[in-house]
Amino acid sequence: MTKISRYILVNLLGWKIKSEFPNIKKSIIIFAPHTSYWDGFYGKIYLMQLGINYKFLSKKEFFKFPLNYFFKIYGSIPVSKTKEYIDYVAELINISNELHIVLSPEGQLAKTIRWKKGYYYMAVRATVPIVVGYIDYKKKEIGIKKVIYNPTDISIVRKEIAQLYADVTAKYPENFSPELKV
């Protein structure tokens, strides 16, 4: 499936894959910008071609019949906006031999000025790195910007992430605001 996914993404859809996925077994993968449902489609194909074990975090509202079947097949698990959910995700990671949790820290498709912080707390609780993934529609490339191996200070991490996304163009740029407000 990895070769087919890569062929679809690169040869049929014309995307460039930038950088290799790091040799790590567990992580929190943030994937931005997220301004369109197309981001999830391209992101899914990108992740499939990597050959890693991953789960998407998706709004729990999407898990109603009949969409719940689609999201489960897609590899999603429902998100609950509670502190216990951070512990739940950390435990999922800790009991797995290999698992990467993928989420969009913007939390929605509409413009936000401050990203959700759950990704940071999940990574800290599970003691895993944060993989900074991206999709750039202007350059038509998708990949990994950086791995933050030791996220110890949320302010520093958020500023670094904002800098990493500063040159990335969303499908709908007017809806993308990298983590500028900390």
From TrEMBL:
<dbReference type="GO" id="GO:0006654">
    <property type="term" value="P:phosphatidic acid biosynthetic process"/>
</dbReference>
<comment type="pathway">
    <text>Lipid metabolism.</text>
</comment>
<dbReference type="Pfam" id="PF01553">
    <property type="entry name" value="Acyltransferase"/>
</dbReference>
<dbReference type="InterPro" id="IPR002123">
    <property type="entry name" value="Plipid/glycerol_acylTrfase"/>
</dbReference>
<protein>
    <submittedName>
        <fullName>Acyltransferase-like protein</fullName>
    </submittedName>
</protein>
<keyword id="KW-0808">Transferase</keyword>
<feature type="domain" description="Phospholipid/glycerol acyltransferase">
    <location>
        <begin position="28"/>
        <end position="138"/>
    </location>
</feature>
<keyword id="KW-0012">Acyltransferase</keyword>
<dbReference type="GO" id="GO:0003841">
    <property type="term" value="F:1-acylglycerol-3-phosphate O-acyltransferase activity"/>
</dbReference>
